[in-house]
Specification:
Blueprint (H helix, E strand, L loop, with lengths): L3 E5 L4 H12 L3 E6 L2 H15 L3 E5 L5 H14 L5 E4 L16 H25 L5 E5 L12 H21 L5 E7 L2 E2 L14 E2 H12 L9 E4 L7
Parallel strand pairs: 1-2, 1-4, 2-3, 4-5, 5-6, 6-9, 7-8
Length: about 230
């Protein structure tokens, strides 16, 4: 029986790299992002290249109702979910006292509540899978604040707190929970910056790290992974 992975924020950057990595390993996928055209293109690419089943659903996961609609689609498609990757995120640059009004709410809705409601909605389906694993894509901004990180850092601290609580709650059931804290990763978010690509982590490196963590023996878990560019933070 094929295994299945659910990945949010799946069409760009880290999410896309993780989707490709799990498709390479024969996982069927359920993917979501906000743009239907991007999802359709990725579905076509992955199914053609890897022969897997790929279900896509356009949704804005900062909206609880749309998150619940995506969850319902997953549950209608898969009897169990082996891997859930909570990757949906948004970054609004600015200081706490100067960022646009609503920046905190938007980033909490997107970066925290999307993971909270997706996990709650899928947990019974996850429980049906042997050796299930939940990955929450946090950030080095989950560990310390940076100039201009404003409410983004608040939301990512909160996501790490959610991940830690989830780890303790699911530990007795044998469901693994891992927090990934990447530093600056070379994605479209950094387009236009005058720095070489070598100054960044690659999205593929993050995906390979997720895959390696998933493949530990059943008795081992990496709870938290911090990744930084070799030369340090940007």
């Amino acid at each position: 029986m094929s295994k299945s992975a659910v990945i949010t924020g799946a069409t760009k950057g880290i999410g896309r790299a993780i989707a490709i990595r799990f498709a390479q390993e024969g996982f069927d996928l359920a993917l979501t992002s906000r743009t239907e055209a991007d999802l359709s293109a990725l579905k076509k690419e992955l199914e053609a290249q890897f022969g897997i089943k790929c279900v896509v659903f356009a949704a804005d996961l900062s909206n609880k109702a749309e998150t619940e609609a995506f969850v319902a689609e997953v549950k209608n498609t898969f009897d169990n979910v082996n891997v859930l990757v909570n990757n949906t995120g948004i970054f609004v640059q600015g200081g706490l006292m100067t960022e646009p009004d609503g920046a905190l709410e938007k980033q909490i809705d997107t970066n925290l509540y999307s993971a909270y409601y997706a996990t709650r909605g899928l947990i019974e389906t996850i429980r049906k899978a042997k050796g299930a694993h939940i990955f929450n894509i946090c950030s080095i901004a989950s560990l310390q604040a940076y100039p201009g990180s404003g409410s983004y850092s608040i939301s990512k601290f909160a996501l790490l707190g959610f991940s830690k609580s989830l780890r303790e709650e699911l530990k007795p059931e044998g469901i693994k929970v891992t927090s990934i804290m990447p530093g600056a990763t070379f994605t479209s978010s950094w387009e236009g910056i005058d720095l070489p690509e070598s100054r960044f982590i690659s999205a593929k490196d993050v995906a390979d790290t997720v895959w390696a963590s998933y493949n530990l023996s059943p008795s081992a878990l990496i709870e938290e992974i911090v990744m930084r560019p070799l030369e340090g933070d940007i």
